[in-house]
Write a structure and sequence with these properties.
183 residues, three-stranded antiparallel beta sheet, 13% strand, 28% helix, alpha+beta
Length: 183
């Protein structure tokens, strides 16, 4: 349903530029929508190739006899409108249909009971031979993830990994509960 609405929106957006494309009176130039993108047919057998990386009209002077510089300047903007990247949960269990945990999150991060996530700094294992002792010490520290990262990591794990765990001699025991936390 969303793809259909996006297709209709893109067709309407490109239809507004139809007045900028000069059409001869014999009707050889037409605009048709195909799968959400518009392609221009200049003669019944001739199709100009389109892609999201190149400009819509790569030819400056086409068979209609006019150039279309405005449409070429708008075309790079269409790829950002039509293709929005989204992080989706793609793994579900076959038996019960529940979400699966992304195991890389469990191995690389530590979740505190208050909902904060701990991580190591990037590059703490890489090229240690050329880093100073002070820099290696700073990289070994653990830091908190921000709100956006914590929300994403919560989506990538199941409730099993969010429960409270009690460990003997836990070094993070005093950090599990936040005091004076106003949300």
């Amino acid at each position: 349903m969303a793809a259909w609405a996006l297709r209709r929106g893109a067709a309407g957006f490109l239809r507004s530029f139809r007045s900028l494309v000069p059409l001869p009176f014999n009707g050889t130039c037409n605009i048709h929508t195909i799968t959400g993108l518009s392609t221009l047919y200049f003669k019944p057998g001739q199709l100009l190739a389109t892609s999201t990386k190149k400009s819509l009209l790569s030819v400056g002077n086409v068979s209609c006899g006019h150039s279309v510089p405005i449409l070429n300047s708008v075309t790079p903007l269409l790829s950002s409108i039509l293709h929005q990247q989204v992080r989706t949960v793609i793994q579900y269990s076959l038996r019960k249909g529940k979400r699966k945990t992304v195991k890389a999150v469990v191995h690389r991060f530590l979740r505190l009971h208050c909902g904060l996530w701990l991580r190591r700094r990037a590059g703490y294992k890489k090229r240690l031979w050329k880093k100073t002792a002070r820099r290696k010490q700073r990289l070994r520290e653990q830091v908190f993830c921000n709100k956006t990262q914590s929300r994403l990591l919560d989506k990538m794990t199941t409730s099993f990994w969010k429960r409270r765990n009690w460990y003997a001699n836990d070094p993070f025991q005093k950090y599990h509960d936040r005091t004076n936390l106003h949300l």
